[in-house]
């Protein structure tokens, strides 16, 4: 029996330039895929917070550091009909309900004693038709939520092992009509044949929700590997204000894409200047467990690069 080789992927949100943490995660996702005989897919998560021109710059930066991908780049903005039909499928199965809560109401309700941290408390789950009509008459436009029948779910992660996390009645379509990330990621990974999801550790807590949704939809559940983030010296996630954090910032300092790859390789414990070289030596078991703390000064001085 022949089985398809599967695929890994990278899925940036085009809200600005990719920073070194994003580039490092992209390199890791590519390495995981390429060293396991998988295809590598690219997807642009462009339903929200889109900055004009950012998607193309991100793709250019990824190519400049030596990443390649297979097949067309998938853009979520082209796939609204697919998300809608998935929401319809769940609705037909009695798996959705309309939610009229404001963010504030949810925060207040979720802060109630014994409520699971940050989980939606189910306020709108049992609204009657008349109550829904009344809310609509107030001018509120509802979000659509999943009617979950679990409160937590377990996944296995290549780096974190067994991980159990909260599953609530997650949003499928937001009140402003935009399909929600947890839905689109599940639908798109399946559509692109992605069976290996490598991404930053910040997304680990969302993964039980996504795995639950994939199981509900009868979609294959990918293998997960959540990799360490890059932090600034204050232990916060890297941001633009941390200095020369993007490829173009580095190039403005006189560094080349090869210098940036070398620094990322060094942070992973390898002496390599190209992603092709890294691919020869990559061992997922050697990825450091701790985040990479990026020192603003020094690391990227041209004369310190080999
Ligand atoms: N677009 C998401 C982000 O940039 C990543 C989604 C994912 O990897 O699942 O945070």
Automatic annotation (TrEMBL):
Residues 9-250 form the Glutamyl/glutaminyl-tRNA synthetase class Ib catalytic domain. It comes from Nocardia ignorata. Its cofactor is Zn(2+). The lineage of its organism: Bacteria, Bacillati, Actinomycetota, Actinomycetes, Mycobacteriales. Catalyzes the tRNA-independent activation of glutamate in presence of ATP and the subsequent transfer of glutamate onto a tRNA(Asp). Glutamate is transferred on the 2-amino-5-(4,5-dihydroxy-2-cyclopenten-1-yl) moiety of the queuosine in the wobble position of the QUC anticodon. This is Glutamyl-Q tRNA(Asp) synthetase. Belongs to the class-I aminoacyl-tRNA synthetase family. GluQ subfamily. Keywords: Aminoacyl-tRNA synthetase, ATP-binding, Ligase, Metal-binding, Nucleotide-binding, Protein biosynthesis, Zinc. Binds 1 zinc ion per subunit. PROSITE patterns: AA_TRNA_LIGASE_I (PS00178). Its EC number is 6.1.1.-. A motif ('KMSKS' region) lies at residues 237-241. One of its GO terms (cellular component) is cytosol. A motif ('HIGH' region) lies at residues 12-22. GO terms for biological process: glutamyl-tRNA aminoacylation; tRNA modification.
């Amino acid at each position: 029996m022949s089985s398809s080789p599967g695929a890994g992927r990278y899925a940036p949100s085009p809200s600005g330039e990719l920073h070194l943490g994003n580039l490092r995660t992209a390199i890791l996702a590519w390495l995981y895929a390429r060293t396991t005989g998988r295809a590598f897919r690219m997807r642009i998560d462009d339903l929200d917070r889109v900055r004009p021109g950012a998607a193309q710059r991100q793709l250019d930066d990824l190519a400049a550091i030596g990443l390649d991908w297979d097949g067309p780049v998938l853009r979520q903005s082209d796939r609204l009909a697919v998300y809608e039909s998935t929401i319809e499928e769940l609705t037909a199965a009695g798996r959705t309900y309309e939610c009229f809560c404001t963010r504030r109401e949810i925060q207040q309700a979720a802060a109630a004693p014994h409520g699971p941290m940050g989980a939606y408390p189910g306020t709108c789950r049992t609204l009657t038709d008349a109550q829904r009509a009344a809310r609509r008459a107030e001018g509120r436009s509802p979000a659509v939520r999943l009617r979950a029948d679990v409160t937590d779910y377990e996944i296995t992660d290549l780096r974190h092992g067994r991980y159990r996390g909260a599953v609530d009645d997650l949003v499928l379509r937001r009140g402003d009509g935009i399909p929600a990330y947890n839905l689109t990621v599940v639908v798109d990974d399946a559509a692109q044949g992605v069976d290996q999801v490598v991404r930053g550790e910040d997304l680990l807590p969302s993964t039980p929700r996504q795995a639950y949704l994939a199981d509900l939809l009868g979609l294959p559940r990918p293998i997960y590997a959540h990799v360490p983030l890059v932090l600034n010296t204050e232990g916060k996630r890297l941001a633009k204000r941390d200095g020369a954090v993007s490829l173009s910032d580095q190039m403005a300092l006189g560094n080349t894409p090869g210098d940036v790859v070398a620094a990322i390789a060094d942070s992973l414990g390898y002496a390599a200047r190209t992603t092709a070289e890294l691919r020869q030596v990559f061992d997922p078991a050697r990825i450091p467990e701790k985040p990479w703390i990026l020192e603003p000064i020094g690391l990227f001085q041209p004369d310190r690069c080999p």
